[in-house]
Amino acid sequence: MGSVHGAWGFIRDPLSILSVISSAPPSLLFSALLAIAVGGFISLYLFLNLLAHHPRPPHNSEKTYLSIDSDGNPTPPAPLPDAFNPSSTPILDISVIVPAYNESARLPGMLAEAITFLASHYPNSWELLIVDDGSSDSTISTALEWAGKRLSLGELQPDRIRAIPLVKNRGKGGAVTHGMRHIRGRYAVFADADGATKFSDLKTLMEKIQEIEVDGHGIAIGSRAHMVNTDAVVQRSFIRNFLMHSFHTLLRTVGVRDIGDTQCGFKLFSRAAAEAVFSDLRTEGWIFDIEILLLARYKGIPVVEVPVSWHEVEGTKMNLVKDSVRMAWDLGMVRVSYAVGVYTIGEGGPGRGRRKSCEGGVVVGEKQNHEAQDGDNQDEVRNREQLNGRAK
């Protein structure tokens, strides 16, 4: 007992501890500190591995899609293409991904606007992928019935709209990622099912992305930052605006300083950029937009922010307080997970020489980057000329 009390007294006496430390050999102190540091890092790494999000593998049924045939009837499930397969090549100009969770009421209006624009600007060279994120309503059947009616009116062709049902809800980021993995277009844009963003603004995004592409890599993101003092934002509730400004402050602390609006659900990717980003994307919740921008920066992919027209639409699936807290937590997890190596960064992005020129910030805003065109090969130039011709 005496030895126990003596040890406890020693531990409680800071001077005794300091005396032992000061008398210890420097090599022993260094070894002890190194062991503590290594042990702390390993503990943090294991802790983050337990908490960090790791997307589940897709079910076999999620690798198929539904559409309508030439008679307007639903087709049996057919296999989806693997866009990230090295042998895969684009056969369309543009793919549109629409993540949808219980959107049977709002989806038809968005589809009507999108298809009117696509048929006019990219005739016979577009597709629209509706990724049903485990809905409990009639999202899929509503979309296919709507497509069948449009086909009967001669306004739509078979297989232009593809519906991909997910067995279990992944979250918006997971639905978008799943859609991006199965595109057939040279470019791919994801757009919210509520139709809050004016779809014809895709024309401006396409023009801007082609100005800043580097080695076929580029991202153009829609932005509502210019609307911060308009009625659409000012008339929002105090709590919603407070959370919005708090979130932007948090973004600056983790390194996303050059983007005015990270959360707008209207983002356009070149095919190469989509593969480089979404092959590494882990986050499947609301914060996935931030991880997209972080990956773009890590991989040297240029990003341009483009003002778009936007209006508030009722029926949001977001719980302001709960989801804001979750987003803050996920944001911290993503940033730390990349910092300590829980999340690794794979291949993809512009060539090494170009990547160095982008170091320190790949966001170019609305500035024109004429150097982006220097490395274009002749095939890319021809593709751009064809796209521009169709978009006029």
Automatic annotation (TrEMBL):
Q: Which domain of life is it from?
A: Eukaryota
**Coiled-coil features, chain-numbered ranges:** none
Tell where it localizes: Endoplasmic reticulum membrane
Any idea which GO molecular function terms this record carries? dolichyl-phosphate beta-glucosyltransferase activity
Query: Which stretches does UniProt call biased (Basic and acidic residues)?
Result: 367-392
Q: Which UniProt keywords apply?
A: Endoplasmic reticulum, Glycosyltransferase, Membrane, Signal-anchor, Transferase, Transmembrane, Transmembrane helix
Give the GO biological process terms. Answer: protein N-linked glycosylation
The pathway is: Protein modification; protein glycosylation
Please give the residue ranges the record annotates as the region Disordered. Answer: 366-392
Gene3D superfamilies, A to Z: Spore Coat Polysaccharide Biosynthesis Protein SpsA, Chain A
Describe the location of the Glycosyltransferase 2-like domain by residue ranges. 95-278
Transmembrane recorded as keyword: yes
How is this protein situated with respect to the membrane?
Single-pass membrane protein
GO CC list:
endoplasmic reticulum membrane
The EC number(s) attached to this protein equal: 2.4.1.117
- Going by the record, the broad EC class of this enzyme is transferase
Q: Which reaction does it catalyse?
A: a di-trans,poly-cis-dolichyl phosphate + UDP-alpha-D-glucose = a di-trans,poly-cis-dolichyl beta-D-glucosyl phosphate + UDP
Q: Where are the transmembrane segments?
A: 28-48
CDD domains, sorted: DPG_synthase (cd04188)
What the record says about family reads: Belongs to the glycosyltransferase 2 family.
Identification of the protein by name:
dolichyl-phosphate beta-glucosyltransferase
Q: From which organism does this entry originate?
A: Ascodesmis nigricans
